[in-house]
Write a structure and sequence with these properties.
alpha/beta; nine-stranded mixed sheet; binds zinc ion
């Protein structure tokens, strides 16, 4: 029996309380819409955390018990405490998996992990998004069709300010003409990082079965294989150094 996979879904949980269209799409919050299908996976335990909780629900204790952290943030990146960002960052470098969704491209933690600008073009204009799988053997897209459409989504366009992906998984096309690297992975320290673009707060994207399949695959892919604390020791030679 493999060990239980512990997933934490973090959401700033503000848009759903201030925008009627977001409340309509996600009456229990985006975090619950993401968490619910994951709870049905065998061997997976899911908890949620939100901005308003003490330490945003991301205490050291919670992170110690988290294998994969999923992050959705949009309008309150600046309200996320630097101390919490550092704690999450350190935990990723130790081996925790991290999945950054949609507008998390501008979150402090994504920018810290990638060391890049996260900049992109955007438009809220009822575009249709077509996601193309460009890496069909990757575990994240098993059971996902070669392409699938989201009937209405916010547009994100290139150039996207990310380091060169180690693995590019999806490219999106939008009905307004733009394209975007909408699924990409990197290794950061001992942890795995996956950025997945879809998921604007006013569209029902996280109810889409293909999106749910991607996230189910992604939490398993991002599962840690090790936990190695950062160390930088001064060491004695194994044998006397030769002159
Ligand atoms: Zn958005």
């Amino acid at each position: 029996m493999p060990e239980t996979l512990h997933v934490t879904v973090w959401n700033e949980f503000l848009n759903e309380k201030s925008k009627p269209a977001a409340a309509l799409a996600y009456p229990r919050g985006i975090h619950e819409a993401i968490a619910e299908p994951l709870r049905h996976l065998p061997g997976v335990e899911v908890r949620t955390a939100t901005l308003e909780e003490p330490q945003h629900g991301l205490t050291q204790e919670v992170l110690d018990a988290t294998d994969v952290l999923i992050w959705w943030g949009h309008s309150a990146h600046h309200l996320v405490a630097d101390e919490v960002v550092s704690r999450v960052h350190r935990r990723v470098l130790e081996g925790m998996g991290f999945i950054a969704l949609h507008s998390a491209h501008e979150s402090k933690i994504f920018l810290a992990l990638t060391g890049d600008t996260g900049a992109l073009k955007w438009r809220e204009a009822m575009d249709r998004e077509r996601l193309w799988v460009v890496n069909p053997s990757h575990p994240i897209v098993q059971g996902v069709p070669e392409h699938f459409d989201l009937p209405v989504e916010e547009m994100y366009g290139e150039p996207f300010g990310i380091p060169e992906p180690e693995q590019l998984i999806f490219i999106s096309w939008f009905s307004g003409g733009e394209v975007f690297r909408s699924g990409a992975t990197w290794k950061k320290g001992n942890g795995r990082l996956f950025y997945f673009r879809p998921g604007h707060e006013t569209h029902p994207t996280y109810h889409d079965p293909n999106v749910q399949r991607v996230l189910a695959n992604a939490v398993r892919w991002a599962r840690p294989t090790v936990r190695i604390a950062r160390q930088c020791p001064r060491v004695a030679p194994l044998e006397p150094p030769s002159v």
